[in-house]
Amino acid sequence: MLNYLDKLKNTDSGNFFLMAGPCAIEGEDIAMRIAEKIIAITDKLQIPYIFKGSYRKANRSKGSSFTGIGDEKALRILERIGREFGVPTVTDIHESGEAAMAAAYVDVLQIPAFLCRQTDLLIAAAETGKVVNVKKGQFLSAGSMKFAVEKVKEAGNDKVILTDRGNTFGYQDLIVDYRGLPEMQSFGVPVVMDCTHSLQQPNQSSGVTGGKPELISTIAKAAIAVGADGLFIETHPDPANAKSDGANMLHLDLLEETLTKLIRIRQAIL
Hints:
CATH architecture: Alpha-Beta Barrel
CATH topology: TIM Barrel
Shape: globular
Strand content: 15-25%
Number of strands: 13
Radius of gyration: 17 Å
Number of domains: 1
CATH class: Alpha Beta
Order of helices and strands: HEHEHEHEHEHEEEHEEEHEEH
CATH superfamily: Aldolase class I
Largest sheet: 8 strands, parallel, barrel
Helix content: 25-40%
Distance between the termini: 27 Å
């Protein structure tokens, strides 16, 4: 992914870049179908694209919740998508020992929000030489993320992305403070808005996280209006039956219309 961060920030189209895909890799066929459709849309709209899919879900409310189809199987699916479609891929890692394993298959290693202060994890991700996308903890200010950036860079890797995903508001809701996007950009790294996880309603008594997917475009429009470099959107052709985080994913059929509107906003502020 040589110089890919520069390409994301300086495209001929002037568009934001997009990280999108299913929450989790549920199987090869559905992952390939989602990737194919998103790539057709992003190619048409000239949006730089990174395919997103978690090879394993380590943070679940209930022990019985879906966590994955097997690490190597899911990672090989991500590898195939990257190879056959010619796009970068991103997946989460949760422990230091996973960094080298995942780096053999994907281009971007993502640090989950709950783990953004884990020094050993950040260093292990940095040492792979891959791009490191650090999601801002729901419990942190934007300003405190400069220390996450410093940890990655001090480990010899300057390929860092920061992603905002809202701040905890009470026990079962999140809010987005858009002042944080330019503040994190001041650290000299691309900043992404996670438009789906920022609409989660965690800690439900059912043990299944809720969400407000009808507000995804609202979050995205505001992020583009304040100058976000990229957007993170989890999407699925059948969110109601997705195996993870279906309550806050964008229906895949709505993606092109949503992105088209966002491009108009981007063009208006350039």
